[in-house]
Amino acid sequence: MAKSAAATATRTWSDVKSPRKVVISEGLWLRCPSCEQMIYRKQMESNLHCCPECQHHFRIGAAERIRQLTDPGTFEAMFTNLRPSDPLKFKDLKTYAERITAEQVKSEATDACQAGVGFIKGRQAMLAVLDLNFMMGSMGSVVGEIITRAIETAQERELPLIVVSASGGARMQESGLSLMQMAKTSAALARFDRAGGLFISVLTDPTTGGVTASFAMLGDLIFAEPKALIGFAGPRVIQQTIRQELPEGFQRSEYIQDTGFVDRVVSRHNLRTEIARVIDFTGK
Question: By three-state DSSP, how is residue 13 classified?
């Protein structure tokens, strides 16, 4: 009996000395920047990358956006052969060529826009999506070319055009060549409009700079995700320029809707339904 008790005591002391290790994987939890609650990452991802507590819309890349919007297995990527070049031989801390290579490795994309034809709740459409994962979705020559080809393809096939914008603006490393894309895409949209095409522009956080100043604000109907930052220059630059306090919610979707630049603020959960409804209503 004493021997048994001693053995038990030995086992207990051993457990205390060498406790069982519990491994917690990093990245399973994250803090919501809006409500500041700790949320389970997989739960957030299954909720269309929205906070399950406050529905804050996290930023997502082009591949995830396409997966969310299109019917499974229906998206056919186009214009995938386009690659950025370095015509100006631009160099700051790194050469532009080095930055492009690094971004392509990091994002697993060739540039900051993906486009193709897919179905949204059974309605065929031309879809172009900017990708924040590649140089903050900046618009260079390739992005402008992909958007323009998407517009022209939609016109040729008589398809509705959906463009989802998320961008920090024109790409500084391409200087005037990137600014030319503003006129190029706008001219293509003018031809598309004259042909009777339907263009739905979707603005997400953030949509700024030359993208806002061109195709993003030219939609027949403009949707925006909740609380998305939308503008040309950022609010800090504007405040420093005019030296006045800005209104609460300035340059956010809800404020932009109240001032008439956005038609509707649409939650990510309802975006597919709203796009399909517009396509049905217009007969496109």
Answer: helix
Residue where one domain finishes, among candidates 39, 58, 77: 58
What is the pLDDT, as a whole number, of residue 235?
Answer: 86
246-274 in b/e form (b: 16+ CB < 10 A) is: eeeeebbbebbbeeebbbebbebeebbeb
| Residue 36 shares a structural domain with residue 159 | no
Q: In which band, very low, low, confident or very high, does the pLDDT at 236 lie, cut at 50, 70 and 90? A: confident
Number of compact structural domains in the chain:
2
* Within-domain flag for 89: yes
Q: Are residues 27 and 66 in the same domain?
A: no
Strand extents, DSSP E, 121-256: 123-130, 161-167, 199-207, 221-224
On average, the pLDDT of the chain sits at 91
**Read out DSSP for 25-51?**
-TTSEEE-TTT--EEEHHHHHHTTSB-
Q: How far is CA 55 from CA 25, 175, 225, 227, 262, in A?
A: 25, 38, 11, 11, 20
pTM flag (> 0.85):
yes
Q: What percent of the chain has pLDDT over 90?
A: 84
Count Cβ atoms below 10 Å from residue 116 Cβ, excluding itself: 20
Residue 3 included in any domain: no
